[in-house]
């Protein structure tokens, strides 16, 4: 009886593969499953992830810092205005009189004397009024104007300003002259409009805010009978509108 054949020396012993369709391992490592592949970047020794652009990074950071600064500044200003609450001045027309008033041949002559009172309603801010332009109107037509000198106002302060406007023989439209004469003969008075414009600075410590302020005193009735060229404002002091 012959001995069973022995395996040849120098060859590996057969490995019992559970899956006969899978090829044997190579170099001691199992083969990948069929249909799979390793990502290129994981096995490429020369691969490097893309680096961000330094300039873009700096611009993005500066933008974030700038937006943060604007947000903080806006919040500070919002809180400041909630605490201080700057208010426009209150303006009252205490008196208005006219003398030597005459309308003839489409020419107007007259002299207006007025007294205006400015009140600062702010309890935490002082005011500075620059040169103010004061003008007298009738039906939106300027008859005369003058300028008021600058002045300051403390907190909750009041200032009385006197002014004089005059006109001599200035030309007006025929319809305007007829309107003045008709109103004067029917009502015995003439309604004038007073306008004042000035730059006003609001002061609170080192804070300064300069804004344009307009004052309207409309429909101020002045009794000027036909037989006389003089008259005074009808009624008591009149509060003007400020914008």
From TrEMBL:
Gene Ontology annotations for the cellular component aspect, listed alphabetically: plasma membrane
Biased segments, Pro residues type: 1-27
GO biological process, alphabetically ordered: defense response to other organism
Compartment(s) where it occurs, according to its Swiss-Prot or TrEMBL record: Membrane
UniProt signal peptide: none
Keyword line: Membrane, Transmembrane, Transmembrane helix
Transmembrane parts of this sequence: 62-84
Annotated Late embryogenesis abundant protein LEA-2 subgroup domain residues: 116-195
Region of interest (Disordered), residue spans: 1-35
Major site of localization recorded for this protein: membrane
Membrane topology: Single-pass membrane protein
Protein name, entry field: Late embryogenesis abundant protein LEA_2 subgroup
Source organism (scientific name): Arabidopsis suecica
